[in-house]
Design a protein that fits this description.
mainly alpha
């Protein structure tokens, strides 16, 4: 954008800080199956993934320290919650549903580890 900005605009970019990114490892089959089943049961919809250009610096540190670990990184937004904006709020019904999904994943992990 600095080289040839549209409409005669003047553009200058000066980075202020940076963070180390994190590339999530491929999900293990048990975790992918657990999330898919829980999503269908709790939300009535298939499992969905979302990636974006931002980062959570803490995840890079955890991924480096525990490279063989599986992580479920999620948030509780819900309809019109306006994340990181004015009047951001927690949509309680979505929060309850996400909690049920995570509880199911933990129960499935317990079984997967052979600790019936």
């Amino acid at each position: 954008m600095e080289k040839d900005p549209p409409y005669g605009a003047r553009v200058a970019y000066e980075p202020e800080s940076h963070a180390v990114g994190w590339h999530a490892p491929t999900l293990s089959p048990w975790l992918e199956q657990s999330l898919a089943r829980a999503s269908e049961r709790v939300f009535g919809a298939p499992l969905a993934y979302m990636g974006e250009g931002g980062t959570i610096p803490f995840m890079a540190m955890l991924g480096e320290k525990f490279p063989q670990s599986q992580f479920v990184v999620t948030g509780v937004l819900g309809p019109h919650s306006n994340a990181h904006g004015p009047n951001e709020f927690l949509h309680i019904p979505t929060g309850k549903r996400v909690s049920v999904v995570i509880a199911q994943v933990l129960a499935d992990h317990h079984v997967q580890q052979g600790r019936h």
